[in-house]
Design brief:
44% of the residues lie in helices and 18% in strands. By secondary structure, the protein is of the alpha/beta class.
Length: 411
Amino acid sequence: MTMFNTKVKCLHRLLQLKHTCWCPTSRAPCSRLVLGIETSCDDTGAAVMDETGKILGESLHSQKEVHLRTGGIIPTVAQQLHRENIERVVQEALERSGVDPSRLSAVATTVKPGLALSLGVGLEFSQKFVRRHNKSFIPIHHMEAHALTVRMLQPVAFPFLVLLVSGGHSLLAVARGVDDFLLLGHALDEAPGDILDKVARRLSLIKHPQCATLSGGQAIELLAKDGDRMRFPFKTPMGQTYDCCFSFAGLRNQISMTIMKNEAEEGIEQGTMLSCVNDIAASTQHTVASHLAKRTHRAILFCKANGLLPSNRPTLVLSGGVSSNQYIRKALTIITDTTGLSLLCPPAKFCTDNGVMIAWNGVERLREGKGILPPDVDVSYAPKARLGVDMTADVKAAAIRLPSVRMKIPR
């Protein structure tokens, strides 16, 4: 029996060492290290992380000010700015971490979905890097990375429901594993961040003294605090469509018509600030929040009816750039309180695109040995890429009607 116990202890020790490397400067073991690189849209990000999720060094170059001046993201401009900054950003992350490339276990890079020209810059740089340093390469799905960021910050067990909302995406999915997702709903046209940015541009909020350096979504949220959300009762999209997909194009048309009508009434031309700008901002934000909340409510009911979430302390994770909007968070809190779920949101700095979330997704994949490629394998980027197994038809077939919930959202 003693011999058996000794063998068990030896095997246990070997399993521990499987996930351990040895630091070159000492005889002490150290965690495996991952470099994460993000260039899917307009932020060039890089981070070095160890296997515990500790951020050893990071760097981020934002293109926000450039795109604010041009009135939106121009893909060729974004591509050029990525090219000009990616080497510096990666070098800064490595220097701040004190990690030489030789000590890295792998490089994780966003390859889908996103702007083709932006993705191409990150992928090209990464493949040259891993081949030069002979490192493993981990291709990352951008939305998977957003979905799993919360697990870097606190122990969130699978499965959980996730709502991802950003300038380019809007989706609801059940996360069942590092690479195992059930897609319940997605954007049919525009994303919520996109409509907020377009409304802000139509209202010329960049000319507002409080909004000159803010993104469109940030400007809408700021002005909405002093606005009357009931002055313009925009119709919540897809009220008679009983699924979990999203549509914002019709809402944007409603808002555009309202702006044109008020410009005519005030006798001003497009580009001049309306007197009711705060009220339009508040009404827009409220309708976007209500649409997201109602689709999420239906997703929760679908999950409960089909046993897709644990009965004990089920969780909704809210992530993506738009999730930093506090009004939207409060709207979803009403839904989670009503349905008995816990709402978890990463801090705002981890909601927008960054290298940290890519490195973390790489760490999770490295731990489980999933999607790890040798350096000489050719990888292609994919501007469009669905997340997981598509269950949207099943959700629509269930045709779940929502009970009435009063969306009294405190300011």
